[in-house]
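worker-03 picked up job from queue 'complexes'. Input manifest follows; three sequence lines, order preserved.
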Amino acid sequence: MSTLINPVEPFLRTDRMPHIWCPGCGIGTTVNCFARALVESKLPLDKVAVVSGIGCTGRVAGYVNLDSFHTTHGRAIPFATGLKLANPSLHVVVYSGDGDLIAIGGNHFIHAARRNVDITVICVNNFIYGMTGGQVAPTTPVGATATTAPYGCFERPFNLPFLAESSGAVYVARWTSFHVRYIAHSMVEAFQKKGFSFIEILSPCPTLYQRRNKMGDGLDTMRFYKQRSIIKNGARTQDVDINLQGDIIVGKFVDIERPTLQQSMDQQLRQTLKDRYTGWGGA
Amino acid sequence: MPDAPAAPKARKFRGQVFIDWNRCKGCGFCIEFCPPKILTFSDEFNNHGYHPPYLTKEEACTGCDLCGLYCPDFAIFGVRVPKEG
Amino acid sequence: MTLSTANPKSVLTGAHFLDGDCACGEGALAAGANFAAGYPITPSTEVVEHFASRIPTVGGVFLQMEDELASSMAIVGAAWGGAKVFTVTSGPGFSLMMEHLGYAAMTETPLVLVDVQRGGPSTGLPTLPGQADMLQARWGSHGDYEVIALCPNSPQECFNLTIDAFNLAEEYRTPVLVMMDECVGHMTEKVVIPAASDIKLFPRRYTSLSPSEYLPFRPGPDGIPEMVKAGEGYHIHVTGLTHDEHGYPAMDWHSQHKLVGRLVGKIRDHTDRIARWEERGLEDAEVVVVAYGITSRVAERAMQMARAEGLRVGLLRPVVVWPFPEKRVRELAPRIHAFVVVEMNYGQMVYEVERSAGDQARTLLLGHGGGAVHEPEEILKVIREAAA
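worker-03 finished. Artifact:
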């Protein structure tokens, strides 16, 4: 009988286990989905690069057994842009959290979507800055408390699928960490999609967001996701705002075609320079 | 007239789970989302002080691996095992 | 290490009339740069404009990013994809790039960062020169790290030193700065670009070890690790956190000493090889003028005027400003009266001169706020005072 191993194991840096995530945190769950998606999509693993920023989700890069880059806060996307342009044969996946990608990284997020850089961005949204102790994030719902909004958040949060779509993303999906099979399926689609693909995955942060807002633990939150999620594939992204305890619209919202940054660049330069253009296949 | 439906085929596969006892952090996801509901918290502690799960009815496990897919600590996985004989 | 030669396709061999910015761009092309990201900022923009116009016919990419934060990080990403990279900026953008200068130092990513200095602080004088980023070049990012910085004083040097910067970046697996100033950047002079076969390039130190043998941050005997790029099956991990030889986060004081001590030592232990300066008239000098960049051109004139008056004046021009040529200053100090440091700031490199000279010689500063170069007469006045 052959030795059976956990399907996720070949994708982990087992010499770095156990990881630092809290009991009931959903990030590890998303990593299982990621591993399944890599198997299913049959991507050559030597050509997959994971780029992350700073934060709890940012630690994913350090735990996956792939070329992985733990960059500075907010700057995973520009790093990924440079990496992809320098080696277009790479499948570049940005794997980071809501604060990292959308607050400090917000500018880079919208420009990469605008340019349609051929990367997959996996945004684990726990509505909080977890690593640093539970500060408010641009996704924190109105009324929720955080250490830097101790009397309740009063800023309207971003609707991430709407932000992604309006910036130009060609693939936009949202799931919760309850929707494991859907996450894996979306990841496969996103990997195969040419252009800026964005997957938002809601996840519990039991230690900080859930606890401070009396929402129970990780399991309670997963039950909440199961109960309150409504799958609406093709929903209008402007309608999928998340409120504190309201319904959560999940699904695949956007799946369109348009030229990637590389394609637009090649096309434009070839058109203008004609034979003088030396197309560059990477370093 | 169509034939009467055949008797349901006997299940070909049995499932089995493997638990990395000391990786578990007792979050309860696997227990909650196991479709035949055959996982539960054990009474023993692992070296971190958590109660890892155990399979209550081994013959009812289908090997669907949903437990593995949910586990954020990579502490459990399920496989389909062909029935002997 | 066997040096390679430049790709003839990228080298504009011949004698040209170029400004410093364009010469710098040509230097990058000659060095084989194939990826640049940047953001417009006066007076540096011409470097990337020039590169952007040339690179599509050579082979490579220029992308204008949304800000300097993105530019400085995109080049790091591209370097790990195997590209030879650089970016260009001036004061305000230089400040924004500091975090990634530190990230590049910490991850030992070879890259070139050009700062065409202008009047500061803040928005300052976008179109006029300054030399007030010199200490920032050394200390601008947080934490302990060493940096290599070169300082051209002519468009020809903008070309030459940019190539040197790329070579140093590869040799020491470190970010290297080219500290130009608006005057040198915008002055037009003859620039001779040699044949590609005469341009020697230090190749990237890629490992020949297999993935099972290779450790990304295990140093060689010279303290420098071999490099790989993404996509080759090494499954590396690169992080800005303090890390061990695997590249894994190792956040304890022992790992910190080991890693950061090595990063600092990488440059410090090789200062004798890296340091470079130009000297004139030091054999019998009683007063030594220390100047760099455009100021050194004016200082040379002042030196000639002083010599004509019979004053025994020499000129010491750091070409590599970091690491600072403190050994040479220390050697000169006992046998001269004074150093006269002339710089377009209120005192930056003077501290290095003063520190190196100790109490063996006086150190005088002739600084000013920038916006215009010194007059030779003002320098001459101070030389006379120093000689008295």
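worker-03 released lock.
The domain at 4-201 of chain C is CATH 3.40.50.970 (Rossmann fold).
The longest strand of chain C covers residues 111-119.
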